[in-house]
Amino acid sequence: MAGPGVPGAPVARWKRHIVWQLRLRDRTQKALFLELVPAYNHLLEKAELLDKFSKKLQPEPNSVTPTTHQGPWEESGLDSDQVPSLATLRVKWQEEEEGLRLVCGEMAYQVVEKSVALGALESELQELQSERNLRNERRERAKQARVSQELKKAAKRTVSISEGPDTVGDGMRERTETLALAPEPEPLENEACEKWKRPFRSASATSLTLSHCVDVVKGLLDFKKRRGHSIGGAPEQRYQIIPVCVATRLPTQVQDVLDAHLSEVNAVRFGPNSSLLATGGADRLIHLWNVVGSRLEVNQTLEGAGGSITSVDFDPSGYQVLAATYNQAAQLWKVGEAQSKETLSGHKDKVTAAKFKLTRHQAVTGSRDRTVKEWDLGRAYCSRTINVLSYCNDVVCGDHIIISGHNDQKIRFWDSRGPHCTQVIPVQGRVTSLSLSHDQLHLLSCSRDNTLKVIDLRVSNIRQVFRADGFKCGSDWTKAVFSPDRSYALAGSYDGALYIWDVDTGKLESRLQGPHCTAVNAVAWCYSGSHVVSVDQGRKVVLWH
């Protein structure tokens, strides 16, 4: 049960009620068909068997002779006392066959009735879900309206400033006294705190301008958010927000092609500054590259991985690299150090995904051992193990949520503050990759049914499905990504081409055929929106602009 203060606790009752109703409906409907379907199949088998016997008893045309020349039973050699028994059996079988047909018709009618009832129940469930989504949207709009009103009121409030470096207005003094009760802010929070702690230099009483007052309120709210929504709560160290471009440029041409690894290249990732790139392959190496103009230049090679690299990720600061490997572990490097800093061991099968969380010193891994693990990187130990029913092929992390894609064609959502799965969204085909938009409102999935799907996380519905003639997902680890501004979805195909769709219209925007001669395993779009990199099963790394 969610504790007090945890968002979503009041909603858990009606969620459990809906789940209980669905399970009750499944048990009720299943009980009705448990006896019906086997009986129907048994009757069909008997009808088929009787039909075969009936065909065998019919005389062949060549054995029938006219009654004017000889007796009807002379050539066949049958006794006259056997004729009534055969005729009787034939009539009996025909009656039974007719009865079976009637029974089958009745059972088919019952199946139709049950199907209609099931459709009605599904329609009712969809209506309930639509009403729930509508209530959630209204609640969110009301919340945004309240915040907007509070900001407007704060902007209109006049705060008097007295002369002197140690005195502030009443409104500012109240905030200073309240925040003085909290622990010393972390270095990451000093910038926000300085907005309201710094003394004013005005020599006379004045009032705050509208823009400055809004900045003060935003700084206060941002400070409270970074402290875990509670001024007096335990500090939560978070990375600074990565700047993202406003408009993405579509790639049109190849700028550089390299045979980067000794064998297949499985993973690629840009650093937050968009000038550093990491690639990982089956040769157990991670190469770091500098994007210099239109070329890729070698920065360094990270060694020490115990198996093939399946995924790579930069932390939001850009100073650490995390990789998932086939030796049942994930490994951590510092940029600038060639040897691995930490090994996160504990999985019992290949680790297929490893991602940093937005809070410092925390990461998440997914594996083919049907577990998802959370890690404390400061102490290099597993802080939580989530058991799942299917292989995990990829994971992404939001503020307080972990999303995992699985081999059983399902995407699962986990609250990082609670023990249970909060939601499951089924998709067609094994999930090969997940990509979370920068605003954490949309999720892009790639699956083996050769489609990409955009899921609106505000209503938990599939918003768009992308297909294209010629596009085919080449492997269970094919990675697709959003553009930094979420305008486009990018994926590589088994034939070496790149496909780009417009997220808003669903239209195939571009198909790029370049130097790839084998299946494209992964793609990456830099945060500035200017470059795209693709890697394939034939050792190639291609820079697009």
From TrEMBL:
Gene Ontology CC: one annotated term: Atg12-Atg5-Atg16 complex
Superkingdom of the organism of origin: Eukaryota
Biased composition (Basic and acidic residues): 132-153
Family: Belongs to the WD repeat ATG16 family.
Keyword annotations of the record: Coiled coil, Cytoplasm, Protein transport, Repeat, Transport, WD repeat
Function: May play a role in regulating epithelial homeostasis in an ATG16L1-dependent manner.
Cross-referenced InterPro entries: ATG16, Autophagy-rel_prot_16_dom, WD40/YVTN_repeat-like_dom_sf, WD40_PAC1, WD40_repeat_CS, WD40_repeat_dom_sf, WD40_rpt
Chain positions of WD repeats: 258-291, 302-343, 344-385, 482-511
Domain Autophagy-related protein: 17-153
Protein known as: Protein Atg16l2
Gene3D superfamilies: YVTN repeat-like/Quinoprotein amine dehydrogenase (2.130.10.10)
Subcellular localization(s) per the UniProt record: Cytoplasm, Cytosol
Region described as Disordered: 57-81, 132-171
Comp. bias intervals (Polar residues): 60-70
